[in-house]
Amino acid sequence: MRRLFFSVVLISIFALTIVGCANKNTGNQVQPISALELKNQLDSGIDNNTVIVDLREPNLYNKGHIPGAVLMPLADFDKQYTLLDKNKRIILVCHTGPMGDASGQFLKTKGYEQVLNLDGGMRNWDK
Predict the structure, then answer these.
(1) Residue 97 DSSP SS3
(2) pTM of the prediction?
(3) What percent of the chain has pLDDT over 90?
(4) pLDDT digits (tens, 9 = 90+) for 39-78
(5) Which segments of the chain are extended strands (E)?
(6) Distance between CA 64 and CA 6 in Å, rounded?
(7) Do the beta carbons of residue 92 and residue 114 sit within 8 Å?
C-alpha cells in the first residue's frame, strides 16, 4: 500500500512537471532589462522609440520614478494600454518585477512585440 502511494505521488509530480513545461508559451515571454542596462541607456540618451511605463500607484510614482517614465497604474492598465504605440519599445516598471512581467505578457497577447520588464522593478533601480 505504501509503495503504491509513493508511486502515485511520483507519477503525479512527473505529470505536473511535463504539463507545466508544455504550457509555457515562449512567444509571450517578456525580456528582462537590468537596472544598470536601463541606466546606461538613459545616460546615453534613450531614443524616441522607447517608452518607459510605470505601473505603480500615483503616490509611489510621485515619491520617485525613472526619468521620463509615464504613469499608467496597473488598476487602469487594461483600459489604457491601447494608448501605447505597438511600434515602440516598451519598458514596464513596477515595485519588484512580477507585475511588469504579467503586464508585458498581456501586451504580447495584444500584438506588442518590443516589450521589456525592469528586472527587480524599482527595488533594483533604487539600489
Answers:
(1) coil
(2) 0.78
(3) 72
(4) 999 999 888 899 999 999 999 999 999 999 999 999 999 9
(5) 31-33, 50-54, 70-71, 89-93, 115-118
(6) 53
(7) no
